[in-house]
Amino acid sequence: MGYLIAVEGLDGSRRGLQAALLCEAIRTYEPVTLFRLPNYEAGVFGRLIHEVRDNRHGRWSEISPYLSALPHMLERITWLPKLIESLQEGHVVCDGYTTRNLAYESAKLPPGEREALIEFIEQAEFDSLRLPRPHLVIWFASTNGLLETTHKSGIFKKALFTVYEQLISRH
Predict the structure, then answer these.
(1) pLDDT tens for each residue of 69-121
(2) Distance of CA 46 to CAs 40, 50, 51, 64, 161, Å?
(3) How far apart are CA 168 and CA 165, in angstroms?
(4) What confidence tens digit (pLDDT) does each residue in 133-142 have?
(5) CA angle 64–74–45, rounded 5-degree value
(6) What is the DSSP letter of 124?
(7) Cβ contacts of residue 120 below 8 Å, gap of 6+?
């Protein structure tokens, strides 16, 4: 069984490029598969995530994070058979995985309410849905993401950065 590596970061942090470069490096020694999650083009849940993020079903910032986290969970569970198969054949690098969901959804809440949501999402994803926990999470903390992302308020971006730092310090 291979290692599951999650590459995380703010929008605009070029985490996709870094995930691809990491795959290239691993591939010189071991088999590796790259997953880009969410995959907005593949599957009903990926498309729903894209629509929710584009505010087509109400303002994303106003949807309860307990509800807006669910399409991400469901999308990952649809990829679970391929993810397990890929882990049996080698390593897996995910450009976005569970930590992204934890960060983006909990940043919508006041600091005192975030831990309960994080526990809910982790229990749902890892215990109930039995998604594999990543062996390693690499977080790109580029502040360029804070500057380049224009569809979220500055307050939210700062909260998101803070939540990512808290999540990383937990592991």
Answers:
(1) 999 999 999 999 999 999 999 999 999 999 888 988 998 999 999 999 999 99
(2) 4, 6, 9, 19, 24
(3) 5
(4) 999 998 877 6
(5) 90
(6) I
(7) 66, 69
